[in-house]
Design goal:
Blueprint lengths: L21 H6 L3 H15 L7 E5 L2 E6 L1 E8 L3 E5 L2 H6 L14 E4 L6 H21 L1
Antiparallel strand pairs: 1-2, 2-3, 3-4, 4-5
Helix pairs in contact: 2-4
Amino acid sequence: MKQKKSKRPTPAAKITRRPKDVDEYLAHLPGPARANLRTMRAAIRSVVPLEAVETISYGIPAFKHKKVLVWFAAFSSHYSLFPTASVIQQFQRELGNFPTSKGTIHFPAATPLPVALIKKVVEARVAQGLSQRKKS
C-alpha cells in the first residue's frame, strides 16, 4: 500500500536564506501577502506588552516577551498564526470557520483577515504567558 505524501504548505515567497528581521521577511513577500501580514503584525503589536520585541524564530516572524508569545507567517494560500495548542482550544468555537492544526490557525488568503479575532487570540496567549511566569 502506498503511503500518502504529506502536503506541506508552500511559503508565499521563496526565501533563499533566513531573514535577519521581520522587515526583511516581509520585503520578500508578494504585495497582497505583504499587506495582509503587515495587518496581522499591527494587530499583534497592538495587544502584546510594550516590552515585547519582534524576532525571527524557526525562519518566521514572532513576538517575544521573555519567550516567544506568537509566530505568524505567509503561505501561498493562507496566513498562519501560531499561538500554541492550548490557546486554540480556548477559541475552538470562534475558530470554527478556519482550518486549525495542533498549534496553528490558517486564515485563507482569499478572505479578509479577522483582525478582532486575531487580537483576542493573542491577548489570551499573552495572559497565558504571564500566568505561567507567575507560577514559576
